[in-house]
Fold these 4 entries.
Entry 1:
Amino acid sequence: MSSVSTESPAYVRHALHAEERTWAETNCYTDLLIELVHSMGHDPVAMLAFTLAIDFEGDQWTFFKPSHFDLVALYGLDVQELAIWKAPLEHVAEQVAADHPVLIEVDSFWLPDTSGTAYRTTHQKTTVGVRQIDVERGSMAYFHNRGFYTVAGEDFARVFHFPSLPPYAEFVKPLPGFVPLTGGEQLELTLGMLKAHIARVPRENPFMRFKARLSEDLEGLMAADIELFHKYSFATLRQYGACFELAETYLGWLGTKGVAGLEVPRSAFASIAQTAKAFQFQLARSMARRKPLDMEPLDTMGAQWEVGMTLLQSRYA
């Protein structure tokens, strides 16, 4: 018997996952860390300087994740790998009982919150953040994508069944004695992180490299079904589109803290996020109709990247 996964009515998502955003979801790891940090009383926007260093990696855009160093410095949260040497469920139960949320890769096939996409239809790896677990009753509460859910019954039992290799897992350990930063301390720290991440910005415009690669990939995409579109889009358009929307939000947050002069890169990154969303639909239509794809939006996004990064590098590099 399957179970029903419900989103906790008492939990309020962070504004980074509001419905009105261009990209309401980013990737499973970043989304759940945003909500986990938020649920622990911290502001996740302060950690978003890392989004500025995204690059085109050849067969994908950077699968962007918060820096573990930044998480320790800003929030006193130490992310450590969980060594699996016994049943994964036993490890998860022990760490969660110690108030260490567990980030673990599971199969979306057994997550009812993915109903309509993967639940009971497709086997897909995803990361969830387990916050509460009751082994005797067979239930758990967890962060996944932009929500906080509960799952029980057969799905709970099967989600911890790993027929081959054990899953990759981490636990989040709140550092004892960590004192939350004051507003001024947090701002000074995140500006230092901004400078560090700006130093990692690619030297060549990543959009031009992506345009060249997409031109090569188009023939295969046009001959494929819609399932390949979803995978390709997730690894490329969604990654950089969602990432630059987070970058725009981060720069806006700095503005609310008194950092002036960021309007130009904010506008540039917002434009990239919005254009990427539209371009995703254009690619889907081109594949469905087997018609040529207009690549000009990539030139537009590349130009916006140049505008935003040139100003930020001149100021913070």
Entry 2:
Amino acid sequence: MRVLSADSVYPPHTQITLRTRLDNEIDNIQSWQHSGAEWQRLYQEPNRWESSGAVRLGEACPVYNCHGLTFASRRTQLYDSTTIVISKVLEDDGYTQVPERSTRVGDVVVYYDEKGEAQHSGIVVSKLEASVIMVWSKWGKGFEVVHSAGNCLWGSLSKKFYRITKWKYEDFFKVNS
């Protein structure tokens, strides 16, 4: 258990041990605070999100980001060289890219900018009759939201969908027969 000193208002940023299935370390940080200005902005933004059709879930939490929600069970932020980290997680954890039309509940979506940098990620939670894919993600430093896959806070980014298809050790390690 961490104990705060009497002169500390917030705990220091921390890290957890986080590894891929193939035992590669994943760089991360747990930020335990927002500045006053960040908290104020978070609570002013919901109207912008709601007007875009997103539904906010719960309260804001600074500890994890969208990639931490998608790939680290809401425990931390994946942040440094995000594209490299996300690529390593996708590869090491057995994800395979799937066409958008074949997307299913439980798949993940990663949004990329024009340079191919991973900017956002989320988990597919439903696919409606009209092929509208709904995603559960975390927008910015604050709130989890459910939104359509085509509605991203960061503008028009390209998106790719992934599904874990490699579950058995034989898929990862050469097995001697």
Entry 3:
Amino acid sequence: MGARHRPVIDVHARERHFVDHLAPVWRAIPEALRGDFMVPRELSWRLEELGIPRAKPGAGDRPTLIASYGDLKAVRALGRERIALLQHGIGQSYGAAIGKSKDGPSYSGGRDNHDVSLFLCPNEHSASRWRTAYPGARVEIVGCPKLDDLPRKPERSTPPVVAFTFHWDAHVVNETRSGFLQFRPAIVAAKRRWTILGHGHPRLLEDRLAGAARFYARNGIEATASFEEVCRRADVLVFDNTSSGYEFAATGRPVVVLDAIPYRRQIRHGLRFWEAADVGVRVDRRVKVIDAIEEALRDSPARQRAREEALSIVYGYRTGAGRRAADVVLDWARELVPA
């Protein structure tokens, strides 16, 4: 087979969680067809942990795989024209919003993704929005490659380890707001009962106003920026609107779902709002969080069934997504470089 039939694939990521979504796809691409895994210098440590050689972002004409709108803008500026987008997270979107928030470019079906010719999606909700917005693009449901790498925890700790994680406070619509400030007292209360592990979106941990990292330190709560560490150690995860909650649940463990005050119960965006919200015990008041954690730890058969039903909505496939995505990317790239 000629070189034109063996396209080399580049990968570009500017944040650690995007690296984590893309790495399983990279490993599934045959070594001879791996091009440059491009990250900024400050992410060199993460690629070193994963055993992936780092390349500096640069111009080129190779097919390029990304996992975010921010990286789409970056590779566009580098002159890249053959672009595949792996939808990171669960593909949450806010289609019930009004105005530009309805089709924000970072979300499924968002505007200004016109130069993406392949969308790799976790589920039908995400895929259908991309198909509608960009009918000329190829859209494939592959699942979530990040699930391939998440640690499982075979036995419960004594006392149980309860992790809390929150999304950053994105002022896009009500449902993108963080529940961190509302539920901070519940974290302190839970510390009296269980071993607590603090986590959060990188932007929340570093936020100068919310200051999640400072809050955890001030209250003597161990914190980690590593979601893999959460998955290695936690017995239950408490979360607001973040894909991490579904990723943790996909490892077979219970979760608590925080319905923060800004989240409008009458607005139906899909997935987290509200078809797949019953992935865990739902709670809307901080005084009820302790009871919700206790119920989640019991993990009754009914709760397990509800978790599985929600996960079946969120993930088209629960295993093998890295290989599935790599196969699609290689097929797409070959179509771009005909004989």
Entry 4:
Amino acid sequence: MAKSYGADISVVYNTLKDLTNKDQQGFISPTEFSRFATIAQLNIFNGLFDELKDAQRLSRGGYNPSRDKSRTKRILEDLASFSVKKQLSKTTGSDFFSFSSADPAAKPMARLISITTAGSILLDQSTKRPIEICYDEEKLERILVSNLSAPTEEFPVALISDDIHVFPTSINKIEVRYYKYPEGRVSTTGARTSNPPTYTEGGTSIDFELPEHYTSKLVYEIAKLSGINLRDAEVVNYSSLESQSIKQAEKQ
């Protein structure tokens, strides 16, 4: 079997199944497990943004280790695999930008990172311009009527709603960076898929997109969602042993 690029769903399932059987807390079927897997991954993913805020606050207070031990750096590294860059053109016959549902490259946006104009590199200098992001329509109205802060092509502004409205309206292309929602990875190839993580006995399972070091968190989160109480230390120890066992089998 080829190496998986995300947390191995079979490790998570077998760990949870064995622990529940050991503690006589009932049996969780692959179907039940798969229903909770997507929600568990999404909960952990959303929690990363809260952890990032906490880590940045500690860093400002001088309590966050530096370099490779930095909690901020480690969270940003984990989030980097969910970062997407997409160039958008105006929707035909309109003054706004939107993601086309027919475009397979337009992954569902979870958190917006930045927006720039779609420039190019000229004499080793980028012609892109950062676009200020605004979520408040009243604030935008004040910006638009102001003689001092009215948007220009050098200093554009975007209103984020169901669509993206960029001012001045003479800007026809933008580049959006955002974090997409986590999906799954096909176990046997590590390839991306738009399907959710799914465990299938005797078939092709779809691994989590979260990195492998989130295995124990996934076990604990799915247990919590399914109403099963597990001790943290036991989950961590067992999932670590299970993961090592699978790796040994893959090398043979």
